[in-house]
Amino acid sequence: MEIRALAVARYRLRATLARRLGGYIVLVLLIGLIGGVAMGSIGAARRNQSAYPRFLASTNPSNLFFSSFSTGGPSGNNAPFTVTTEAVARLRYVKRVASTGNLLAGPLAPNGAPNLSSVGQLDAGGTLDGEYLDQDRVAIVKGRMSNPADADEFLATASAARLLGLRIGQSMVFGDYSAAQTESPGFGTPSVAPVARVDARLVGIFVPNDQVVEDDVDAFQAEILFTPAFTKVAESTSLQFGIQLVHGDRDLPAVEQELAALVPPGSVYEFHQMSLIEARVERVVKPESIALGVFGGIAAVAALLVAGLTISRLLQAGESDLQVLRALGASPTVAISEGLVGILGAVVVGALLAAGIAIGLSPLAPIGPVRPVYPSPGIVVDWTVIGVGTLVLLAALGTVTAVFSYRMAPHRVARRFRLVGARTSSVARAAAGAGLSAPCVVGVRFALEPGAGRTSVPVRSALVGSVLAVVTVVATLTFGSGLRTLVSRPELYGWNWSYLMYPGNQQIPQMALTQLDRDPDVAAATGASPAQVLLDGQEVPILLEDTAADPSPPLLSGHAVTASDQIVLGGATLKQLHKHLGGTVVLTFGSPQNSPLYIPPTRLLIVGTATFPAIGYPSSVADHTSMGTGALLSIGVEPPALQKAQTNPDPLQSGPSMVLVRIRPGVGAAAGLADMKRIVNATNKALAADPNAGGDSIAVLGVQRPAEIVNYRSMGSPPVILASGLAVGAIFALGLTLAATVRRRRRDLALLKALGFTRRQLRACVAWQATVAAAVGAAIGVPGGIALGRQLWILFAHNIYAVPEPTVPALAVILVCLGAFLLANLAAALPGRIAAYTPPSLVLRAE
Fold first, then answer.
1. pLDDT digit string, tens, across residues 735-749
2. What is the pTM of this model?
3. Distance from CA of residue 192 to its chain's centroid?
4. Helices vs. strands in the chain: H and E counts, helices first
5. CB 68 within 8 A of CB 263
C-alpha cells in the first residue's frame, strides 16, 4: 500500500507540477527569506555577545594591570622606580610581565617651548619590552602598527589625533620632560630643554584592548604611544605593568596582596583587572545581542506561521482533486500522500536556502562598538544555529504538512462535518439584533464564525495571529520606552545628584563646602572619595561617604550604610564575590609598611545593593565604580590620620576628594550650573592667592554616563525598527489571511452578490471582517503587550543592575491601535476588490 501511495504521489507531482510550481516557489522563498533572516539574527546575537572575548583573546591579554608611584614626586630615569619589573616578575604565580613607561611628553612649538595644554591633556606612554605591541596588543583601526626600532613613529587614539590636529602620515615634534623640569620656574619656555626630542610621524590610530567601550570618565583620555626606540632615550616618570598569571584570574587575590607589599611607604598603587573590563563590555553589548535574538525569534515564529498558512493553502488548492481521487476508490493513505511530496520538497529546498541566507548575512555581525576591532570579520558558519535552525524548519514544517494533509483528507472532512454543525457567534447575533448594516453583520460573521462544510475558515488562528502581532508590537514599544527612560534619567543609572565638584590634584577645600552649606539653591551636598580596596582578596572600586549621606547612589535592595562596619555593594560586585545580602566581606587596603595609608583586615556587613555611578578619575590602570560595579563604605573605615586631614579647620586645606551636589527642585539647569560655577570661581580665586595651594583648582561636572548608557544612546532606533518590522509582518500575515478567507468564502460572497449586494457592499464586508480582527487584536493584545513589555524591562533592568522603572508609551500604544485598524483595512483592500469583481456565475456554476 505504501509503494502504491508513493507511486501515485510521484505521478501526481509530475502531472500537477506546472500548475503548482508557482505555489512551491512562493513557499521556498517564504521559508528561505524569513527563515534565513531568523537564523541570521540569532547567529548575529551569538556572534555579537562573543565578539569582545574573541577580540580580547587575540591580543594576548594580561590578567592584571598594576601601577605605582610616589606621592612625593616621580623618580628619575636612572633612579629606581617604586616597583621594578624584575621585582614583579619574581612574584609567585606571575607567568609574564611587560611594562610601559609613562612620559611627560607633548608637542613643541617652533621655538622649542612645550605646548603646556597638550602636555596636560595627553596621556603619553612608551612601550619598553613588548607591552601593547606583543602583550595586550592594541587594535589598529586605521593605518599600521609602528616599527619598534623606529624612534620617529608613534601611534595615537582617535581623540589624541583630533587634539593634535594630525592625520595618518603627518609629523610633529615632541619633547619629553622629567618631573623635576615641570616644577622648575622656567618650564614652558625654550630655556628648559626637553630630556628627549623627536620629530615623529603618526602611522596608526589605535584602540587599547581595555578601552573598546568607554564611559564618560575614561573618554577624556587622549593617548599616544611611542616605540621602544624612543622610550629608551626618554625619561619615564613611572611604570605600568601588564601581568599574566600562571593560573589566570584564580591567582589575582594572592598576587594583588604581594604587589601591595612591594609598594614602599609614601607611594600609592592602582590595580586594573581585565576580567572586570570583559564583564563590563559584555553587559554593554548585551542589549544589542538581546535585540538581535528577539528579532530572530520573532522572525522564526513568523516563518513557521506564514509557511504553515501557505502549506495550508497549497493543500486546500488540491482539495477538489482529493475528492475525485477518493470517489475513484483511492485509500486514505493515497489521498493523504498525494500532496505531500511536492510540499515536503519545497520545505527542504526552503530550509537549505534559509541556511545559505543566514551564512550570507553573517558578515553583518558583530554590531556596536566591538565591530571596528573585531579580529575575524567576514563569512562565518555558526553550525549550531544553522544545524538546529534547519532541523527545526524541517521538523516543524514537515509535521505541519503531515497534520494539515491528514486533516484535509476527504474522509476526515466528511466525518467532521457530519458530527459538528456550523458554530455561530453571540457577537454576530448581537450585531444583527442591534440593526447594524448588512455588510457590517456579514463582516462580523466572517471574522468570528468559522462556517461549515467546504467553506469553513480557521478564524481562531487568524484572531490569534492578530492578537500576537499586537502583543509583540506593544511589548517591543514598552520595552523601548523603558530603555529611553533609563537613558534620559541619570538617577536610574546611579547619578542621584545634579553636579559633581572635583579638584585638579588635591581635595575639595573646606571653603567650597561652607559655601554649599549656605547656598539656598542647594538641596543637599556630601563629600565622597573614590578609591580601590581589597574585598575578600579581590580589588574593588569604592566610594567613601559619611554614614547615611545624602545624596548617595540609589539603592536596589536593603538599606543605606548607617555604621562604619557596614557596606553596600553593586549587583555585579555582589555576584563576583559570591555573596548575598546579610553576608560579610573582609576589607583590606595596603600593607603595614604603607601606614598611615593602611587598613588592616576589617569585617563588614553587607546591608544593601545599589546602582553605582560612573565616578572617578580618568586612568588607564585604575577601575572606578559604574552601574553594578563598586561598593559604598563609611568614611569611618579610613585611618584616623586621613579622617583628621579631611576635617582640617583651615578653609583652604583639604577636604573630601569630590562633592556630590543636588540642586533644589524648581531651580533650572542653567541657574543651577551658574550657581555651581560661582562657587567654583570664588574657591579657585582664593586658591590662586594662597601660596600653599600649589596652583590647585576645582571644577564642576554634569552627568557622567557609564559605558552602558553611552552605548544605549546609540541604539535608540532598534526598538522602533523592530516594532516597524513587526507591524509590516503583521500586515503581510493579515493580508494573506484575508486573501485566503475571501477565497474560502467565495461561494458565500457569490450568493450575496446574487442576492443583490453591490460591489461596494462586498468590499465593506471584507473591510468589516478585517476591522473586527484588528479590534480583537487591540482589545486583548494591548494590555497583554504592556504587561509583557513591563515584565521584560524589569528583568532586563535587574540584569544590568539599573533601577527598574518601566514606563508605558501611551501615545505610541494609541497609535498602534489606530494603526491596527488602518492597516487592517489597507490589507483588506485587495481581497475586497477581488471579491467585488469576481462574477458570481464563475463560482456558482461549480455548485
1. 666 666 666 666 777
2. 0.73
3. 50
4. 26, 22
5. yes
